[in-house]
Amino acid sequence: MSLVKELEIEIELPGETSTEDILNGTLDSQSSVDSDVKQSNGANKVVKNSTSPGVRTSDNLYTIVLSSPKDVSKQSSKEDAHGILTEEQLLLAATLVQDAWNGRSFTFKPNAVYVRSYNLYHKFYLQFALYFFIALNLALALVEKPAKPGWEIPYWGSMIIELACLTFFSFRLIHTAHFSKKVIFWRDTKNILVVITLMLTVIDMIGYIIWVNVSPGTNAVRWSRPLRPLFIVNFSDGRQIRRAFRNIRRTVPEILNILILFLLSVLLFGLLALKLFNKRTDMVYANGEPYFKTYFDSIWDLYVLVTTANNPDVMMPAYDKNNWYALFFIIYLIICLYIFMSIVLAAIYNTYRKNLKNEIRACVYGKRKKLAQAFEILKVFKHGHFVISYSNWCQLMKIVTPDRSQAQLDLLMRILDSDGSNTIKKNSFLM
């Protein structure tokens, strides 16, 4: 227990002494000072005033109140009490940090039940099961009719396997809907595509079963098989594949004008080749096929020539008849291969790089947003700033990285502690 509760000092101060001089001299020597400045007539006095901390000045007379150590300990205990976190808060903060760490962009309900369901969704065994069923669903094409002799299985066997795959896909989708907000879930295009793909596949399975049993001698068709790769792209676990498709989708419209110009050049040279070589009946390919017989054949042969797959075979029949015919193909290769294809490649590279930068920028923004949300949960007010205390940091990291030792956690704390106050500021936490 402290024996000092109040202190009264009478001092004579020069007439030009300022409030800053008094406070600086007092506060530099003691960190726990509450001051209240008042004016009275006569000498300068220091007396206790326990009602209003702060500084107020008028003329030359100042009154400074020093709080007792007992009051300071109460204030410190109060700050520590505000820094105590509940289990639900720690779980939510740890989940947000893990999302930022793994680059996930889910929006889930902040309730503890839904947070635990969200963490269960990202367990490795459920993700492995999803990849397994996607691979199994795609592999059905090897054993379904028509298949390699000896590989085909009865249609009901493939139906049972596909039904098991669809059941797990439906479970995965329902699990996502459980912890997601309904508005956000139904606004997500990939969730809608998964629902539509599941419905179309079930309709196709029912129709195929009816077709096979009603008309067993006919050639029944499974038209939903091309939809199976959509499960790879539209489930949240395939975000890397989805990111690549998204970049390609954003790149193509920006280079569309160059692609159209290249296509028009091929069409023009195809027309010229048709007019030059169509009536030359003595020109045929080495296998006896007609040489630039139709307009479509001319376009196709010249397009393949851009890839150099049929170079120089496509020009040899004309070159054998007249050496000057080679000039046509040389001009075509210079314009379409060496000029246009270089421009197309440069445009694709620059556009894809720009879109990739935007994608990375959005990813970094999402990570910092998640970390900022976690900081709002973990923060305490100390030393005039909102910071993460050492105790909260240790509790958080025990959940996020349970395999790390206390020495490693202390080392990370020292790295993030920019001012040596044994706390982590917001800027350091978001790095």
Task: Put the structure in a nutshell.
The protein has four domains: 65 residues, no CATH class; 112 residues; 106 residues, Helix Hairpins; 51 residues, no CATH class. The protein is 61% helix and 3% strand.
* Helix/strand order: EHEHHHHHHHHHHHHHEEHHEH
Structural class, from helix and strand content?
Answer: mainly alpha
Terminal residue distance: 44 Å
Strand adjacency order, main sheet = 3-4-5
User: Which residues form runs of ≥5 with pLDDT under 50?
Assistant: 1-81
Number of domains: 4
The major pleated sheet works out as: 3 strands, antiparallel
- Can you give the mean pLDDT? 79
Tell me the Rg in angstroms.
Answer: 38 Å
Count of distinct strands? 5
* Percent helix range: 55-70%
Q: Helical segment tally?
A: 17
What form results from the Cα inertia axes?
A: flat
Strand content: under 5%
How would you describe the overall organization of this protein?
This protein is mainly α. It folds into 4 domains: 9-73, no CATH class; 123-234; 255-360, Helix Hairpins (Orthogonal Bundle); 379-429, no CATH class. The chain contains 17 helices and 5 strands. It has helices at 19-27, 69-82, 87-102, 112-121, 124-139, 155-179, 182-187, 189-214, 230-234, 239-254, 256-277, 295-306, 316-321, 326-378, 390-400, 406-416, 426-429, and strands at 9-10, 45-46, 380-382, 385-389, 423-425. The strands form 2 sheets. It has a 3-stranded antiparallel β-sheet with strand order 3-4-5. It has a two-stranded antiparallel ribbon with strand order 1-2. A hairpin with a 2-residue loop joins strand 3 (380-382) and strand 4 (385-389). Helix 3 runs parallel beside helix 4 (112-121) and helix 10 (239-254) packs across helix 14. The chain is flat. 15% of the residues are buried. Residues 1-81 have low confidence and may be disordered.
